[in-house]
């Protein structure tokens, strides 16, 4: 694959290093995603010089290496042999690294050909090693740090290795061997995405999705006790709750341990209240927003994909953790006699959806539906675990909440939300979020489901799938985040619900539209529903994971 690093950063499985190009300036940067997307990521700007003069160069990247070209000739190449190692091979030119340093950042020579760079804001150190070439460094000291750092690499093999505290000397693989090692690793991953899919006509999307999911993983560090698949290494470099579940679902069949790790990250950081964090990175845990519970929904599907998830110990872990989540909503998000509520649009994952334009808190039918579905699944988990009394109790809780949902948030026009301490009806009913009760279609009357499906087809379905705001709504907005664009996880939820509740034709039609969408808009965070253009972050893992799940479904169906 010819990788455009303006859209998809060059990286590898397990690494915090990545390389990308600025869309406006076309400047190329070596970056590091420690600290999440609130931390500075740029380490060095990369330039190519010939006879001391900056040259206009071309960058070409594959899944395993990134190369620099002058007048069609390759002059430098970068690979990531190991997770914390960046290897650079230079021929006939100087590759210059200019540090984007802070006040206290400091570079020092420890011995011939070895410079240690301390990066204070990231609590990170780099060892820059000259293996076979010429390393020239200009970094004048000024009391508390270097005025600037200019590093030039000529004619040879160089390594930049990152670490937290102490550098351990080692023998580095020769460049060609290191490249071959990465090629083998990536081939194994790509093959695991199911080679039967390569003949379906979706190869460009398959290549993007496979690479994005592989290259967006970071290794255990700090808060992260296991490998984590970030949403992206372009802009959104954290692991978010809810998002993580769709990645786990795609990994479940061929990479069950990694799939379980995506869930365990949040179970391990669950608050005493029962709430999962909104997001986690190697340095920070945020509980600002609490997403709806879908762990049980996903785990039920994972058990169908791989017997690994039927293990009693793992099932019990998810079961007990999910019980705490449900207790959180019962104790801390529910007013007496009412349904659980959101305190911000971000709680729902639909940050700026029109349902939330009136105010807060909001009782929403999607949240109630997720909870009903979770109680139903907990009941089945309890049966499997031999907890008969609990199974009955959870089914009763599901029944009670379902009845309350119909009583409080449903009328002849469909589902709606309520707002504020007095639970006033929200008149805005044009968001797709109000149609998510399809998730509990097995509990709804057939005429209610028929009405929901007809509504989807008439007011939300576009050339490429389901818009998140009715295309006829005054609130619809181009590139409006949740006010129109198509999102992968929501698409998956609707397709899954439709196919499981007797609307297979509609589900398959939406599936095929999404697959076609990726050929137009790539693996973006979201998409224009009319043109298919990829919007916001263009290198998103949950989009990639949903694509792979839906493609696998199509291959099985065909």
TrEMBL record:
<dbReference type="InterPro" id="IPR012341">
    <property type="entry name" value="6hp_glycosidase-like_sf"/>
</dbReference>
<protein>
    <submittedName>
        <fullName>Amylo-alpha-1,6-glucosidase</fullName>
    </submittedName>
</protein>
<dbReference type="InterPro" id="IPR008928">
    <property type="entry name" value="6-hairpin_glycosidase_sf"/>
</dbReference>
<dbReference type="InterPro" id="IPR054491">
    <property type="entry name" value="MGH1-like_GH"/>
</dbReference>
<dbReference type="InterPro" id="IPR004888">
    <property type="entry name" value="Glycoside_hydrolase_63"/>
</dbReference>
<keyword id="KW-0378">Hydrolase</keyword>
<comment type="similarity">
    <text>Belongs to the glycosyl hydrolase 63 family.</text>
</comment>
<dbReference type="Pfam" id="PF22422">
    <property type="entry name" value="MGH1-like_GH"/>
</dbReference>
<keyword id="KW-0326">Glycosidase</keyword>
<feature type="domain" description="Mannosylglycerate hydrolase MGH1-like glycoside hydrolase">
    <location>
        <begin position="237"/>
        <end position="543"/>
    </location>
</feature>
């Amino acid at each position: 694959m010819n990788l455009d690093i303006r859209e998809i950063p060059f990286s590898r499985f397990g690494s915090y290093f990545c390389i990308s190009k600025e869309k406006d300036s076309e400047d190329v940067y070596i970056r590091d995603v420690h600290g999440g997307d609130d931390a500075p990521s740029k380490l060095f700007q990369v330039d190519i010089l010939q006879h001391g003069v900056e040259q206009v160069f071309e960058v070409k990247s594959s899944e395993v290496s990134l190369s620099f070209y002058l007048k069609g000739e390759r002059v430098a190449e970068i690979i990531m042999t190991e997770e914390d190692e960046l290897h650079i091979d230079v021929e006939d030119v100087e590759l210059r690294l200019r540090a984007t340093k802070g006040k206290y950042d400091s570079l020092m020579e420890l011995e011939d050909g070895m410079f240690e760079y301390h990066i204070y804001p990231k609590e990170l150190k780099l060892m820059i090693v000259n293996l076979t070439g010429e390393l020239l460094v200009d970094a004048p000291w000024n009391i508390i740090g270097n005025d600037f750092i200019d590093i030039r690499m000529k004619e040879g093999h160089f390594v930049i290795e990152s670490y937290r505290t102490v550098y351990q000397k080692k023998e580095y693989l020769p460049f060609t061997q290191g490249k071959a090692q990465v090629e083998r690793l990536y081939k194994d991953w790509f093959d695991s995405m199911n080679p039967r899919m390569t003949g379906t006509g979706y190869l460009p999307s398959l290549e993007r999705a496979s690479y994005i999911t592989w290259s967006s993983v970071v290794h255990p560090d700090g808060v992260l006790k296991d490998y984590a698949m970030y949403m992206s290494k372009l802009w959104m470099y954290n692991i978010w709750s809810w998002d993580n579940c769709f990645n786990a679902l795609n990994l479940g069949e061929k990479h069950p341990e990694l799939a379980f790790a995506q869930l365990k990250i949040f179970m391990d950081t669950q608050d005493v209240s029962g709430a999962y964090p909104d997001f986690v990175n190697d340095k920070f845990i945020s509980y600002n927003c609490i997403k709806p519970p879908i762990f049980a929904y996903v785990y039920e599907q994972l058990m169908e994909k791989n017997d690994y998830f039927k293990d009693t110990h793992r099932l019990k872990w998810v079961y007990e953790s999910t019980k705490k989540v449900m207790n959180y909503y019962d104790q801390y998000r529910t007013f007496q006699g009412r349904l659980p509520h959101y305190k911000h649009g971000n709680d729902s994952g639909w940050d700026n959806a029109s349902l939330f334009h009136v105010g807060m808190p909001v009782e929403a039918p999607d949240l109630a539906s997720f909870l009903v579905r979770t109680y139903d699944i907990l009941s089945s988990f309890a049966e499997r675990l031999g907890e008969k009394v609990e199974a009955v109790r959870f089914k009763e809780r599901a029944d009670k909440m379902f009845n309350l949902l119909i009583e409080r948030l449903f009328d002849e026009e469909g589902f709606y939300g309520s707002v504020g301490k007095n639970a006033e009806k929200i008149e805005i009913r044009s968001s797709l979020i109000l149609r998510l009760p399809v998730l509990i279609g097995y509990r709804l009357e057939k005429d209610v489901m028929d009405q929901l499906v007809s509504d989807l087809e008439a007011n939300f379905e576009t050339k490429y799938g389901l818009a998140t705001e009715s295309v006829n709504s005054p609130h619809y907005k181009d590139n409006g985040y949740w006010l129109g664009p198509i999102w992968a996880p929501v698409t998956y939820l609707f397709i899954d619900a439709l196919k499981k509740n007797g609307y297979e034709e509609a589900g398959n039609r939406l599936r095929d539209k999404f697959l076609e969408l990726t050929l137009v808009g790539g693996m973006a965070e979201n998409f224009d529903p009319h043109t298919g253009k990829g919007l916001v972050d263009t290198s998103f893992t949950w989009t990639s994971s949903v694509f792979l799940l839906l493609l696998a479904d199509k291959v099985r169906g065909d």
